[in-house]
Amino acid sequence: MLYHLWANEWKRVIKSPALLLMTLTIPISILLIVGMIVFSQFQEEFEEVEIIIIDEDETFETNALISQLAGDQTLAEQIQFVDGGNALAEHIENPGEAAAIIRIPEGFTEELRSGHNEQIDVYLNDAIPFSSQLAETFLESGQSYITSAQAGVNTVHHFYSNELEGEARSEALQQNTLHFTFLALGRNDLFEMHEGQTGDLLDWKHQLTLGALMFLYVATFILLASLFQPKESAAIQERLQLIQVTESKQRLARFFFHASFSLVYVSILVAVGSQVLESYLSIDWPYLFQWIFVSILICALFLMVDLLIRERAMKWFAFLLVVITVLLVNGFIIPPAYLPAMIQNAWLEPVRSLYTGFVSIISQERIPWMQWAIMIGFTAIMLFLNQVSGKKVNRL
Amino acid sequence: MITLWKSILCKKTTWMLILVIPLAIWFLVLPTAEETVNQVTVPIIIVDEFDQPLTDELMNDIEEMPFQIKKTDEFDLRPLVKGEAEAIFVMQENIDGRIQSGEIDEIITWYRNENSYVDGLFKEKLASAIMSRAVRAEAANLVETYQVDADWDEVYQYGTRYFEPEPIFQMNFETIGSAGSTEPRASDNTIFFPIIWLYVWLVIGYFTRFLYQWRDQGITERIELVGRSGWYYGSWLLFVLLISGILMLLPLNVIGMLDNTWIFLILAASILFYLLVALFVKKIQGLYVIAISYGIASFVVFMLAAWNLISESWMHLFIPTWFLI
User: Fold this and answer.
1) What is the C-alpha to C-alpha distance for residues B108 and A190, in angstroms, rounded to an integer?
2) Which of A9, A169, A302, B37 is the most buried (most CB within 10 A)?
3) 3-state secondary structure A32-68
4) pLDDT digit string, tens, across residues B61-118
């Protein structure tokens, strides 16, 4: 009987190929469109970030300042400074490929030396958001170092070079400017860096891949389960009850339908994924099995929500909440290290098996027997609850 | 006609959609989600085996958010390996003395792992806090070499005026749009608009389903026979406009985004869109396909437009993007 119900669900799907096609293609097209647009922006912008400098002051200090910014070790590799002459209005009118325009006003050095806070104007080009964001971060970190360098220069000037005269004075100033500029610039020398490997984290590539595949699976599952849900008809229910097909049996058949669909879907997903991303995602059985257990657990979660909530709108709302919460707690949405401590508690460890299973396969190259047992256990409990509910109450 | 509306209002789903779920999102989901997002932090461990006062001073100088800084006096690499810490910074002995004498190379050991994403930001902040002291010490040392009678502490303290209350060097960031005019970036609240719209879109879809059901049951046909079809569609339009209007305008009013005149047009256009689909697409599956595809596509296009990733004129084919005009 269960088999017939299950086959019937598949028949309904195959009868509406347009709906099925939509179920399969909508999530993929969303991912592709968003991914392609973001990627093309990155490609285009990150080849080189261009910053136009309009130096109306043109002193030794402003030159040192520009070379200090350009010499920054952390970010300056992709940044190119372009001399913009004096045509500020023109550049603002038509920034072109420039991520930012920096204007150093005339008299800037004089003001800075006398300890006044003379602001430099930076115009960020919103048309290329990633680059201008990068330029902003870069210039913000530059602010504190230039302040440091200038504080050193000014202090020495106040106590010492101020009292010198003529050539000696400007020479001392230039020497100090260079000295403090290099001191502040060498901030990375403060640190001795050690980079180690870790067993309990995923690198961003795998994190991103898991996030994308999870989005595809969950979105497809939701579309499938919602578009192909059975009609609510009292007459049909009555007839089914007559031939001993209880609601719990119908739910179980639907679960098997969802699970079998998921099995096929994630297998294809992993196979295609490993083809496309072959540089770091080789096809292997534990990875596929982990996906299968995760997807079947999600099907069981749907069964559970379906069992507890009859009203349709509420059911979907609750299922969305449950799935998003489970994925968030696991770390599919935000990497687990950044999640609040409350979520990282030890008692939530079993719930996090969906993610930790992937970690042990990818990072530790270990088969996650424990996580698999937990996921199968959760699924079994939910199926059992469904059976029990069927025996106790014979709802209509 | 009234009986038809009664039948809609008697359904539990109707009330769930227009009352219970919006209230649940507003009072339950949003606050929880906001709290979780606010608690997202980057865990950093600072190790100081010698319990130096300067370490506390530096930690005070660094803004807490988005970091969650933990100070210990025992070096332990395990939190890093287990992913509980993004990076570990170990302070060397006599750090204050070394800064004062200008020997600042490698005064901190920085342990990170290959998967650390944003610890570089913390390093920048820590370096900037140290550098503000190091340059003042260096200046005092220099002045001392030039002038034997100089007071080291006086010079060192003098330098603070360039950092407090305002750092001497600041940049004034402005944004220029592609058109060249200075305009503000999309505010954080912008994300709420397409979400609210998408929900209202689904609710309108729910009401459109009744048009299909009534057609299937032959109700529409009978109404057309008595020549009241204009009345029938008109009252559907009014009813849906009323409910979706309340659903859309109330939350927008709360987050203060009601000043956009396009909202009413967006609402009216969304309902008309459904009415046209109901009139010309005969199968209910067609309604599902169109409603879901268009709803999701609009959401995506809206977000891309709000982030300035696209600014083509075709994007206005998607109703919610009118909000950005």
Assistant:
1) 6
2) A302
3) HHHHHHHHHHHHHHHCCEEEEEEECCCCHHHHHHHHH
4) 887 767 888 888 888 888 887 777 888 999 988 888 888 888 888 889 998 877 776 7
Please write the tens of the pLDDT for every residue from A277-310.
877 777 788 999 999 999 999 999 999 999 998 8
Cβ contact B288–A74 (<8 Å): no
In a mutational test of the A interface, the residue from B8, B117, B131 whose CB has the highest number of chain A CBs within 10 Å is B131
Strands A191-196 and A79-83, sheet pairing? unpaired
CA A175 to chain B, closest CA, distance in angstroms equals 12
* Residue A139 CA: distances (Å) to CA of A116, A135, B66, B170: 20, 6, 20, 10
- Does the distance separating the beta carbons of A120 and B171 come in below 8 Å? yes
* pTM to 2 decimal places: 0.77
What confidence tens digit (pLDDT) does each residue in A197-227 have? 666 677 778 888 899 999 999 999 999 998 8
Question: What is the C-alpha to C-alpha distance for residues B167 and B12, in angstroms, rounded to an integer?
Answer: 61
Top residue of B146, B169, B299, B311 to mutate, by most chain A CBs within 10 Å, is: B169
- What pLDDT score was predicted for residue A74? 54
Give which of B176, B204, B209 to mutate to test A binding, by max A Cβ within 10 Å. Answer: B176
Whole-number Å distance between alpha carbons of A217 and A144: 46
Test A338 with B104 for CB contact under 8 angstroms: no
ipTM: 0.73
C-alpha distances (whole Å) from A76 to each of A73, A119, A220, A283 are 6, 22, 42, 38
Identify the CATH assignment for B41-162 out of 2.40.50, 3.40.190, 2.30.30, 1.10.10.
3.40.190
CB B69 within 8 A of CB B123: no
